[in-house]
Amino acid sequence: MKQIIIASFLSFLLATGLSAQAVLTLDKPEIDLGIVYGGSLKKGRMTLKNTGNDTLRIFNVQPGCGCTAIKKPKEFLAPKESDDIEIEFNSVGYRGRVEKDLFISTSDPASQYVVVKIIADVREEMEPTTKTNLVWLGNVPVGGTVTQTVSFRNMSNRPLTIRGTGSSVATVLVKPNKTVVQPKDSVTVQITVKAMRTFYANERFWLELDSKNQPRVDMRVSFIGVAP
Amino acid sequence: MSEAVTLHPRSAWEEAAILVALACVLGFGYTFFMERGFFSPTLSSETLTEGIRLVSADSARTLFHSGAVLFIDSRHTASYDSGHVPGAMSLPADEFDGYRVQFESMPRSQPLVVYCDGEECNSSVAVAIRLTGMGFTNVRTFFGGWDSWMKAGLPIERSDGR
């Protein structure tokens, strides 16, 4: 009788031990950010829930791109407990439909490595006609200046006003040829840089708009300062 | 007259134990001397696909101090702005077509070292392959990337030159 009780108890422990399992459940299959206007940041979130009967461990949450900052959830989720992954997508440099991956690794045997898509539809109201965000000026003699123009087209259906311009350094000057840009019309912007030393420079400049959707158009300008 | 010798054949359990012990000695010995498991991926080897070589953090540091190589940062521009290898040129993998103009007049023999965030990113490999496709003949990938550069305490620079 004693052996039967011990065997039953051990079987019970074994059975419960084997059946205890953490289960990762996501509240949605992907994080769809919808329309994101160029240059802006947009936040999104996803909820992770442990629907199993054992503690779920979140080993890692890793965005597949430097364009996405994340706030990780708790490392351990008790059964029935949930927590959020918060993400912030930086749309600079993107246009059109963008898909980025978010990698999640957990202790759930069925979801040890999960890939979640982050989707965004990046639009611009003022778009560079070159379709790129970089103005390359090549070699610039130190102490000298180089000027280049870049055009932007108003893609919206209303006039846009350029309220101001700016740059990350004082040696990059930005001068548009008009302040009000009609729908489907273009503005030409003159970019002048001065090289201060023999060095590769990659700087930012921007146009400030009266648009609520896209208050700022960010661009890059790069060049190499060379000995005169 | 010779004495009769009685052989005691080993049991199956004894033979199995000996085989397991030998396998363990071989396995641990291989791992110890080769510094990698037998079935480990060979990413630590010197050559990757398309003839692109991988470099360690130590090699990256040596190449950096030699001044003979150009570092290429394949991360998003926001990451580049927050810190990069001094003198590195920005070439975000997602904007390759817009940024490739920076390299079009560069001598194709220019040694290049491409890096991204670290071992969990792959944009450095993607950019290295595309640079090779542009005709560059000496392209390396610094697989440890920015993470291992930072951990090694190597010099960094922000995009504004600070």
Write the layout of secondary structure elements.
The complex is a heterodimer of chains A (228) and B (162).
Chain A: H1 2-19, E1 24-26, E2 30-37, E3 41-50, E4 56-63, E5 68-71, E6 76-77, E7 82-90, E8 96-106, E9 113-123, E10 126-128, E11 134-141, E12 145-154, E13 160-167, E14 172-176, E15 180-181, E16 186-194, E17 200-209, E18 216-226
Parallel strand pairs in A: 2-9, 11-18
Antiparallel strand pairs in A: 1-3, 3-7, 4-6, 4-8, 5-7, 8-9, 10-12, 12-16, 13-15, 13-17, 14-16, 17-18
Chain B: H1 12-34, E1 53-55, H2 57-66, E2 70-73, H3 77-82, E3 89-90, H4 96-99, E4 112-115, H5 123-133, E5 139-142, H6 145-151
Parallel strand pairs in B: 1-5, 2-3, 2-4, 4-5
What quaternary form is this? heterodimer
Cα(first) to Cα(last) distance of chain B is 96 Å
Number of helices in the DSSP assignment of chain A:
1
Question: Stretches of chain A where pLDDT falls below 50 for ≥5 residues?
Answer: none
- Overall pLDDT level of chain B: 82
- Percentage of residues in helical conformation of chain A: under 10%
The helix/strand order of chain A is HEEEEEEEEEEEEEEEEEE
List keywords for this structure.
heterodimer; A: 228 residues; mainly beta; five-stranded mixed β-sheet; 1 helix; 58% strand; elongated; B: alpha/beta; five-stranded parallel β-sheet; 10% strand
Commentary on this structure:
The complex is a heterodimer of chains A (228) and B (162). Chain A has 228 residues and is mainly beta. In chain A, 8% of the residues lie in helices and 58% in strands. Chain A has one helix and 18 strands. In chain A, the strands form four sheets. A five-stranded mixed β-sheet of chain A has the order 2-9-8-4-6, with no helix packed on it. A five-stranded mixed β-sheet of chain A has the order 11-18-17-13-15, with no helix packed on it. In chain A, strands 1-3-7-5 form a four-stranded antiparallel β-sheet, with no helix packed on it. The mean pLDDT of chain A is 91. Chain B is an alpha/beta fold and 162 residues long. Chain B is built from six helices and five strands. Chain B has helices at 12-34, 57-66, 77-82, 96-99, 123-133, 145-151; strands at residues 53-55, 70-73, 89-90, 112-115, 139-142. Chain B has a five-stranded parallel β-sheet with strand order 1-5-4-2-3. Chain B is elongated, with a radius of gyration of 25 Å. Mean pLDDT of chain B is 82; it is low at 39-46. Classes of the chains: A mainly beta (228), B alpha/beta (162). At the A-B interface, strand 11 and strand 17 of A face helix 3, strand 3 and helix 4 of B.
